[in-house]
């Protein structure tokens, strides 16, 4: 159904707007302008997207939002000294590339692949990779935001596998 697809796509845009806020807010001169603009942009997009089916327009829009984040994500990657945080950023890029490749191969060769004895399910693999991609991006950006706020973040691991950011806020004086 069209509305269901749009319901899946709108949160993707909101996620990218949040990333833009985290990445660009330290350099924004007017504190309330940026969050207000991003909120209104997201709300207008959600309304427009619920009324109009964008098809390829959504994909182009989403890629542009992602590309807006790349220079700043790279800046924070370079400035980060913590190896575990850098690893989160590398996993973010790796899952983005692998997921995109799975989606593209599935999109271009779906008819051929569906005749194989074993179908690798590229679209399903895209969803799995993008789920991990969001996880790694959120963890890395949480680390970056905590650094921006002076909260001394550390990357820890639950069960030795699942990375999370532990934040130590300074004591108020």
UniProtKB/TrEMBL annotation:
Keyword Hydrolase listed? The answer is: yes
Q: Does the keyword Transmembrane helix apply?
A: yes
Spans traversing the lipid bilayer: 37-56, 62-79, 91-109, 124-144
> What compartments host this protein?
Membrane
Major location category of this protein:
membrane
Q: Which domain of life is it from?
A: Eukaryota
Q: Listed GO cellular component terms? A: membrane
* Single GO molecular function: metal ion binding
**How would you describe this protein's topology in the membrane?**
Multi-pass membrane protein
Binding-site list for Zn(2+): 123, 127
Similarity annotation: Belongs to the alkaline ceramidase family.
Protein name listed in UniProt: Dihydroceramidase
Q: Which species expresses this protein natively?
A: Salvia splendens (Scarlet sage)
